[in-house]
Amino acid sequence: QSYKIFSNMLSMQTVRRAFMPMRSMSSPVGKLREPVIGLIAASVRQGSFNEKLVLAAGKVAESKGATTKVIRLDGAHELPLYCQDLEAAGFPEAAKKLKAEMASCDAWIIAGPEYNGFATPLFVNSVAWASRGDPQGEMYSTFKAKTAAVISTSPGGLGGMRALGSYKELLQNLGVTCLPLSVAVGGSFKAFKEDGSLEDGQPATMLDSLLTRLYEISREEANRSAACAIISSMKQAQTAGEYGAIPGQKATVSW
Known about the structure:
The chain is of the alpha/beta class. It is built from 9 helices and 6 strands. The protein has helices spanning about 1-10, 10-20, 50-65, 85-90, 95-105, 120-130, 160-175, 200-220, 225-235; strands at about 35-40, 65-70, 105-110, 145-155, 175-180, 185. The longest helix is centred in the last third of the chain and has 21 residues, at about 200-220. The radius of gyration is 22 Å and the shape is globular. The protein starts with a helix and ends in a 19-residue tail after the last helix.
């Protein structure tokens, strides 16, 4: 609870300014970092609109302060349809690489088209392999503490909206927190500017709101250990709680 209050009240910049003069504290402020957000397109066809959308979303996330990392599923073509017998024969290198890339991110932006109103077979099979190969007792470790924003686009008016729920359901089954808001961009052929960003309008506004929230949550998660360490240092500091104390009375601290 203390961490949540701390995170909501103070931005990273405020934390740095507030704690910079406190030389006597063993401050972990230098460990604060911006989140790494993975960009995953559930389609790898040449000229994929959803790949274009996730790259546009990545630029928006970067404008918030995040670092982005493109995670391409091209290598997933090397993966056979998941079967436990195949896994027992040897965990594929492509699956190991995918797991490592996904695990290295604090959050993901996933853009995917709909195949018959459902997530793409490529994405489902990729996630199936990425959910395997964990150490004993660490089931779904690749997906632990991850947050995802799920978006889509298609030439049709619904923008791939029918499949958004299937992407979220699959991820949530593995422990991922999927943001409630989604963005489905219709009319893909005319939805993008020449620089690859979305045309001005409601979809662009919604995407900005969605990624602002994703950035805030992933930043908190990326710095959870550092923030907890700061709170611990505050508790141990001799001057903690003295601000605003009544003269002549001993200051008390309540956490």
